[in-house]
Design a protein that fits this description.
Layout lengths: L17 E13 L3 E8 L2 E8 L22 H10 L5 E10 L14 E12 L18 H6 L1 H4 L3 H23 L3 E2 L17 E3 L7 E3 L5 H9 L4 E9 L11 E10 L3 H19 L11 E3 H8 L13 E2 L10 H8 L3 E7 L7 H11 L8 E5 L14 E2 L8 H11 L6 E7 L1 H18 L10 E5 L4 E4 L4 E4 L26 E6 L2 E8 L4 H10 L4 H15 L6 E7 H9 L29 H6 L13
Parallel strand pairs: 3-5, 6-9, 11-17
Antiparallel strand pairs: 1-2, 1-4, 2-3, 4-5, 7-8, 9-10, 10-22, 12-13, 13-16, 14-15, 14-16, 17-20, 18-19, 20-21, 21-22
Helix pairs in contact: 4-6, 4-14, 12-13
The chain binds one RNA strand of 76 nucleotides through strand 1, strand 2, strand 3 and helix 2.
RNA sequence: GGGGGCGUGGUGUAGCGGUUAGCAUAUCGGCCUGUCAAGCCGGAGGUCGCGGGUUCAAAUCCCGUCGCUCCCGCCA
């Protein structure tokens, strides 16, 4: 070994030891005849002190010792140290010394000691890095630069800590399921394309011209087949691929904790995952869990109170519904929206009544991407009268003149607003009103500083609808996936009232991020067939695409269900990262490129020919 | 597919119609024995993403394009 100790382990109790360390030069502080090197390896940083004085010099020249030579090479080490630059890889031998009193560094684990170098050897020189790797300055650097030099970015303490945290989390998860008798099984990466769900990444077959494999969006079918195979408890840390547009929390390839269990009901899977998440949180985080056991919301409750199926419960500000109150309002925006089948909901902005017109306009702009045409707003600038009601004098609002006293009173009551608060309202179809207010709620939480970032607010969302109508394709589609079972009592209305069928599905949410979702599956082939038909697949299509599943269900399929959790999202939440890229070693950009490898890239014509592929130019050059 | 933001020495930024394109940091050289964002002195480094246009004059205004990013659609 080129080192006897790591750069993170030496303490005052090691004083006097002769050690050899190897690592990267984090920083150099050159005082001429005295040079300090901060030597970094993955375990930490140790200060190396290099001078031409082999005894190690007391501070401030209080006791200048003679430059006696005792056979080591301090002068050589000093000369080498003056050559050394940031990120050089060096090997140092020397003696561990307690630092002189007053010169300890409390910032460093090893800050009580320093290594007085007797030998210093450059193992590898380094070009000047494109950005500063020590400290946190690199956080400000353009992400494109960081991605191109990802191997340098990963030397930075924050990124390195994120990957270590990810390792700790995955190790914890594996051990948790090993201990509970789960079998870890690897499933294929080369699978079969199916039309349901996300767009597939596709791999051409050389041996079978014109045919393609698909990369797994998740190992869904394989894990169900493993249940039919009798394994009863399966899990896998599985790589998944989805060819869809990306976001801060979505990458084209990502990792799931995928698991499946036989002879269970939803409550069994939920209890197990809840236990896992509770102990995982205790293991890797100092933050307390806000509510135990995890609150369970139905989908309808979540949409009603938060406008979204993944509510951030770290703060209140529930939405309120005033559709009935304003159904016959003189205010046309409300009345017309309701008449058109829409809803009118709102949210309270605590102490928002005095926001500037610009701030309010910003909120209106904020809501527009979600389709809302605007925000109606009422500021409670003054006090309520003796009767508890607000008069026009004590309100600030462009719409007040359109509202009756009853409507104003009703709005104030429904919102729970008090003096100084601002009421914000959206009137539109539910598919616009809810997302607009849900995101507005987050924005208000942020602006009004209502979010306690030191909390872990887990919750379950259950009773999802099984199906949703796809107006573009004019058919019903599975919200979760086509193997999800309806609740037993709802099978009878699958054909007649598909919108009302609830699924045996459950999502687990942490601080407003959906970190996992699962369901109890259909395990009987006749019900699965009914489901496929409900989704509008012809018998031929079912046979071609899912025939193997239906056939498998005919050979003794146990009742089963499971869940999948997004590892990157979990790690990002525990790491306080804004993007899952921050917890991946080599992530791709928002357009799916790899700036380090420069992928995707063209391939040789020969290679294409072998795969029976012809590339069609997107914009043919006109000759 | 759509919308917003950003793009100026290596990095982070100021400048937003006429500047010698400023600052910080990194970098290079010199001095320096107690620093830990070391300090002090000095130097080098920019065709302002790219292309086109407007103008006497463009980093600055306009159009296009490329890249990064956030969001909508999409993501069972």
């Amino acid at each position: 070994m080129l080192k006897t100790h790591t750069c993170g382990e030496l303490r005052a109790s090691d004083a006097g030891k002769e050690v050899t360390l190897s690592g990267w030069v984090n920083r150099r502080r050159d005082h001429g005849g005295l040079i300090f090197l901060d030597l970094r390896d993955r375990s930490g940083i140790t200060q190396i002190t290099v001078s031409d004085d082999p005894e190690g010099n007391p501070p401030n020249g209080a006791n200048p010792s003679s430059a006696s030579s005792n056979g080591n090479n301090c002068a050589g080490a000093l000369a080498t140290a003056s050559q050394v630059r940031s990120e050089f890889v060096v090997q140092v031998s020397g003696s561990v010394q307690k630092r002189p009193q007053g010169f300890e560094n409390a910032e460093l684990e090893t800050g009580e000691i320093e290594v007085i170098a007797s030998e210093l050897q450059i193992l590898s020189e380094a070009r000047t890095p494109p950005f500063v790797l020590s400290g946190n300055q690199g956080d400000e650097v353009d992400e494109a630069v960081r991605l191109k030099y990802r191997y340098l970015d990963l030397r930075r303490p924050r990124l390195a800590a994120n990957l270590r945290l990810r390792h700790d989390i995955v190790r914890f998860i594996r051990n948790f399921f090993y201990d509970r008798d789960f079998l870890e099984v690897e499933t294929p990466i080369l699978l079969k394309s199916t039309p349901e769900g996300a767009r597939d990444f596709v791999v051409p077959s050389r041996i079978h011209p014109g045919r393609f494999y698909a990369l797994p969006q998740s190992p869904q079918q394989m894990k169900q087949l493993l249940m039919i195979a009798g394994f009863e408890r399966y899990f896998q840390i599985a790589r998944c691929f989805r060819d869809e547009d990306l976001r801060a929390d979505r990458q084209p390839e990502f990792t799931q904790l995928d698991l499946e269990m036989s002879f269970v009901e939803a409550a069994d899977v939920m209890a197990l995952i809840e236990e896992m998440l509770i102990s995982l949180s205790a293991e890797v985080s100092d933050k307390p869990i806000q509510n135990l056991p995890f609150p369970v919301l139905t989908y309808d409750e979540a949409m009603d109170k938060y406008g979204i199926d993944r509510p951030d419960l770290r703060f209140g500000l529930q939405l309120f519904d005033v559709t009935e109150l304003v159904r016959n309002s003189r205010f046309g925006v409300f009345k017309n929206a309701v008449a058109a089948g829409g809803i009118v909901k709102g949210i309270r902005y605590p102490q928002g009544a005095q926001l500037s017109r610009k701030d309010i306009d910003d909120l209106i702009e904020y809501v527009k991407p979600y389709g809302a045409k605007g925000l109606a707003w009422i500021g409670l600038t003054g006090d309520a009268g003796d009767n508890g009601q607000y008069s026009t004098d004590n309100l600030r609002s462009p719409i007040i003149k359109f509202l009756s006293e009853e409507e104003i009173a009703g709005l104030v009551t429904a919102s729970g607003a008090e003096k100084g608060d601002l009421i914000l309202l959206v009137a539109d179809e539910p598919g616009v009103t809810n997302p607009a207010l849900a995101n507005l709620r987050l924005e208000i939480g942020d602006r009004a500083n209502l979010v306690d970032s030191n909390l872990l607010a887990f919750c379950w969302v259950v009773d999802f609808p099984l199906l949703e109508y796809d107006s573009q394709e004019d058919r019903w589609g599975a919200i979760h996936h086509p193997f999800t079972s309806a609740r037993d009592e709802d099978w009878s209305i699958l054909e007649e009232r598909p919108a009302d069928v609830r699924a045996k599905a459950y999502d687990v949410v942490l601080n407003g991020w959906e970190i996992g979702g699962g369901s109890i599956r259909i395990h009987r082939s006749n019900l699965q067939m009914r489901m496929f038909q409900r989704l509008g697949l012809s018998e031929k299509e079912v046979d071609e695409q899912f025939g193997h599943m239906l056939e498998a269900f005919q050979y003794g399929a146990p009742p089963h269900g499971g869940i999948a959790m997004g590892i990157e999202r979990v790690v990002a939440l525990f790491a306080d990262a804004q993007s899952i890229r921050e917890v991946m070693a080599f992530p791709k950009t928002a357009t799916g490129t790899d700036l380090l490898l420069e992928a995707p890239s063209p391939v040789d014509d020969d290679q294409l020919a072998e795969l029976h592929i012809a590339v069609r130019e997107r914009n043919p050059v006109k000759s």
